Every structure is written in C-alpha cells, then in structure tokens.
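Many introductory courses stop at the sequence. We go one step further.
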Amino acid sequence: MNQKLLISVLICMVGISGFSQGMLLPIIAIIFENDGISSSLNGFHAASLYIGILLISPFMEAPLRKYGYKPLILFGGITVILSLALFPVWKSFWFWFALRFFIGIGDHTLHFATQTWITAISPSAKRGRNIAIYGLFFSLGFMVGPLMTKLLEINQSLPFIITSILSLLTWMTVFLIKNELPEQDESESTSFFGTLKRFTKVSRIAWVAFLLPFTFGVLESSLNSNFPVFALRSGIDLTAVSLIIPAFSGGTLLSQIPLGMLSDRFGRRKILLIILFSGFTVFTLAGIVSYSVIGLFICFLLGGMMVGSTFSLGISYMADLLPRNLLPAGNLLCSIFYSLGSIGGPFFGGLVIEYLQGGGNFFYLISIMLLLVFISLVLFKEKMPAPSL
C-alpha cells in the first residue's frame, strides 16, 4: 500500500475528529451556562465523552487483532457522525449526555486504530516526527473547532449540522485505503483477560509514559470546558473566549513538529522534562494574570507551545519503551489515561471555579499537575528500549 496515502487519510481522520471535539466542548459549555446549569454539572456533562472512551477501551484490542484497522475506523467514524447529527433533534441534558457518550466510543475507536497504525508503521528514527504530524492535525482541528461558537448567535443547531457534514465527507476517504492487521505474538490470547494481562506487562515497563496523555486530557478538556465558564463569569466576552481558547492549539501547531524532531534527535525524555517544567511556569503565570484577556491569550499560546505536544510525545515515548507486539495494549492504555485526565479535568476544574475564590486557582491546579508529572519523569528509570523497527 502507498504509505503516503495511508498516512494522509489517517491524519485527515484525526483532524476532523479534533475539530468535532474542539467544537463540542465549548459549544455545550456555553449553552448550558446560558441555561443556568452549574459549572460542576457542566463539567460532569463534559466527562460523558470520556466515560465512553474509558468503558470501551478494554474491549478494543481483540477486534483490532481479529479484523484489522480499517473496520474499526469505519465504525468509529459513523458512530460520531450519527451522534453529531442527532444533537439538534432534542435539547435535553441527559439525551445530550448519551450522545456525548457515544461520540466518546466512536472517537476512541477511530483514534485507537489510527494511532496504533501510525506507531506500527513508523521507524524509531522518524517516530517522533510522524506522531507529531498526527498530533498536529488533531491540534489544528481542535483549534478551529471553538471558532464555531460564533454560530450560536445565528442558531444553536448550526455547529452540530456543519460538523456532522464535514465528518461524513472526511470519513468517506477511508475507502481509499486497504485494511491491515497489527503484528501479534501467536502465543498471546486475544481475549479480554489476555488484554488485561498485557496491560499489566505494559504498565510495568512504561507507566510514566501514560502520565503524558493523562496530562493532555486534563489540559484539553478543562481549558475548553471550564475556561469558558470562568471567562463568562469574569466578564470576558464571547468573542474574546473564542480567540483565547484556540491560542492553546495554535501554540501547539507552532511547536508540534519541531518538538517531535528534537525528540528524535536528543531523546524523548530530555525534551519532555523541558516542556513540562516550562508548562508549569506558564500556567502559574496564567493564574497571576487570570483576568487579563491579553495576558491569558499569551499564556494559552505559550502553554500550547510547551505542553500541547504531551500527547504525541507520550505516545512516541511509550512506543520507544515497548516491543512492537505490545503497541496495541500500550496505545489503549494511553487512551485510558487520556480519558481519566479528560474526566477529572472538567470535574475538578468546575469544583474549583464553583467553590474556591479567585480565578487564578483554576490555573494553579493545572500548574501543580504539570510539576508532579515532571517530578515523576525525573524519578523514572528507563528499562532497556524496545528494538528498533
């Protein structure tokens, strides 16, 4: 198969997935805030997408090993498209909760298949760059998504309709590629319990790598779900919110590929230590300037440049540490930890906004988390690296 075509289709799929997630988080947060729903309930609702990811994760490896990558991508894509199209049908807290839950299942299926496929076909010397390109397109989509908030002034249904149509058009490109099966050890079971056994093995080898997608999950979900609520309560208008939020993804776009290439050259661990400590510094500063539109825009931009690549670098670092036959289990654990971060981020962020005085506390919560992950990486002792692909 033409590898360039394959990678092009996969990054287009993840790009539109990022767009739909970037649209969904702030759109629903703003709609619910205007309807008088509390920030803690708003955060709980945002978690439904990631609950779907978390619940489906242990069951994804077996169908991937049996049917291959393409069927999972097709299933994930159509699940997301149908769910998006149903949002305008009935405006209800619990109906929308269920739709977000199914979007979580569909998005995770799509991400798991595309992510594992790219890590499997990427040689170790180019893995950081390839995963960075993959992450870049997700960030690009995620950056453009919040701009859809302006359409709320026209019609609440419009963002969902446009996103479902764009997702359908992109999903159809999957028919251009041929299916492949992941590499696997014939002695390993493809059962649910076999997956759990591989989870244990993978966790012993590469536990610290999973803290990085967890970190990205907290950042992505809380900045897009909690920040609009904090901003509106602080008197920052909707136009400013729609510009500040994409600044994080914009910063990621600027640094994603350079950081991936630097990690290929100087080592994933060194680059991760630098960006985690830098992120801690930036979000501490964001807490200090939390009522300044210009200050927040600059901090979101710098924060994106520093820690917006934690997911892609985390995947690359995980793939460096694991043998090839354990990559599906490793990618699943990356998704599980991403989901845990994405569930916890909006919930605890919402509680901080609701009950603690001072807007800076929301950003200090993020900076403390980045410092703890930095310390964990400092203390982590690497095992023998996986063989080069």
